[in-house]
Amino acid sequence: MNCQEFEELSGAYALDALTEEERRAADEHLAQCPKCSRALQQLRSVVELFPLTVPPVEPSPRVKERILARIEEQAQQQRSSQMQPALPSQAGSYWQQRAGKRWRWAALAAVAVLLLALLGGTFAWNISLQQQLSHLQQQVALLGSPEAPVVYPLRGTAQASSAHGEVMYFPRQQVTVVVVYGLPPLEGSHVYQGWLLRHQHPTSIGLLTVENGVATLNFQGPLTGYDSLAISLENGPQPSREVPKGPVVALGTLINSRANSY
Amino acid sequence: MSASGKKEGQGSGGQASGSLPGARPPHIPVEELSDETLVRAISLGVVWALEMLYERYHRLLYSITYRMIKDHQVAEDLLQEAFLAVWQNAGSYSSRMGSVQNWLISIMRHRAIDYLRRLRTHAELRGMPLEDAATSEEMVSADAWDAVWRSVQGAQLRRALTLLSSEQRLVIELAYFEGWTHSEIARAYGLPLGTVKARMRLGLMRLRSILERLGTVES
């Protein structure tokens, strides 16, 4: 396929109106033609607005329940195929946990209802009750979940003031995920490296992967006992050993790992 | 209509400087996590992240699907399939593929298109008369559309669509919302394939030019 042939069917490509065979041929051409890729992007940016023209319709709440039930079903199958007994902290199924949450919510709601009933029921109280129940429901749903993440913000230092991101620890998976946006583009063999700091002593947690301006890093293990997490700019391509050699470009403070869980 | 997704860069505010060790970090509400972060969490098997992504986008995705399928039961099944696919394939998402919203819409639309194409046979390819497209309330009545379109961009695009020729609007409508290929449209309307291709391309270019003038898309 040449540029002229692609141009002719570019509208159909943007609208997903090609056959599989035509799409494959077009993809091969696009992979080696930045000019046609740019032209296609112009048409795509219009097509991407089409969903905004659709009247909003709400699906049945059962859809979400069915999705979550299927996920739980798959997780159970996976667990039984691995023949591993559930850890005590994971022993309750997702639905049992949800049921637990509902009971706790119901208990809190009952307390709220009783308190308000004692104070006398008026229309204004009803509104207040709704707000309190909604708040309690949100709190119980998030605080009660064993999956609730512990999230800390990362901020750019003077070397990269537009940088910002998040450090998230997932207790169930025992995985920490670092996501940083707005770091300056890397030059040459330079790399971004992550560090955990305990009393100013750094421990490397590896190099960040940078893709489309988003830098990410995953590592196994909790953050307990560490004071902060830093991202440094290193000469690379290998990670620096023992201590950062380059400037720290982003920093996040880690307090008690449970203090900021949701 | 707009989804309430969080793009990267949107999130809690705060001081952009190195925090002092020992200071309590600012609180980041889970609701403010970016879409990209949620997808990464889903790829690690975090169920609440999928629930949150569902809350942000289910209405938008369902509305598109229902618009295409016109059957609540089937549209709900496809919505379920799409989110299960997200659960299983979140690890394959990369920001290189575009925004999470567009990635989700693409997953959803491809399922709807597959369903429609399976359903259709060549014998069933009966085209909507051109005069219907030109007078369809959905396509023309600005008041009716304004009543349901919630976003300024949507309203502007709708206005732009009414400025297209009915022939261009018809092929775009059939392709995007009905999942027809260009050759199916050519067969159903007895048009040369080149004509259908040209109407799609020129129609989209015209829309872009109108939207640029309105400031809806950047030139």
Structural topology:
The complex is a heterodimer of chains A (262) and B (219).
Chain A: H1 3-14, H2 20-31, H3 34-47, H4 62-82, H5 94-118, H6 123-143, E1 150-156, E2 164-170, E3 175-181, E4 191-198, E5 201-207, E6 209-211, E7 214-220, E8 228-234, E9 248-253
Antiparallel strand pairs in A: 1-2, 1-9, 2-3, 3-7, 4-5, 4-8, 6-7, 8-9
Helix pairs in contact in A: 1-3, 5-6
Chain B: H1 35-43, H2 47-69, H3 72-89, H4 100-119, H5 130-135, H6 137-140, H7 142-148, H8 152-162, H9 166-178, H10 182-189, H11 193-214
Helix pairs in contact in B: 1-2, 2-3, 2-4, 3-4, 8-11, 9-11, 10-11
Overview of this protein structure:
The complex is a heterodimer of chains A (262) and B (219). Chain A is of the alpha+beta class. Chain A contains six helices and nine strands, in the order ααααααβββββββββ. Chain A has helices at residues 3-14, 20-31, 34-47, 62-82, 94-118, 123-143; strands spanning 150-156, 164-170, 175-181, 191-198, 201-207, 209-211, 214-220, 228-234, 248-253. In chain A, a hairpin with a 2-residue loop joins β4 and β5. The radius of gyration of chain A is 26 Å and the shape is extended. Chain B is mainly alpha-helical. Chain B has two domains: 31-119, Rna Polymerase Sigma Factor, Chain: A (Orthogonal Bundle), CATH 1.10.1740.10; 123-219, Orthogonal Bundle (Arc Repressor Mutant, subunit A), CATH 1.10.10. Helices cover 64% and strands 0% of the residues of chain B. In chain B, α1 crosses α2 (47-69) and α8 crosses α11. The radius of gyration of chain B is 21 Å and the shape is globular. The model of chain B is unreliable at 9-27 and 133-150 (pLDDT under 50). Classes of the chains: A alpha+beta (262), B mainly alpha (219). Chains A and B meet through α1, α3, α4, β1 and β2 of A and α1, α2, α3, α4 and α8 of B.
Short description:
Chain A has 262 residues and is an alpha+beta fold. Chain A has three domains: 3-53, Arc Repressor Mutant, subunit A (Orthogonal Bundle), CATH 1.10.10; 96-145; 150-253, Immunoglobulin-like, CATH 2.60.40.
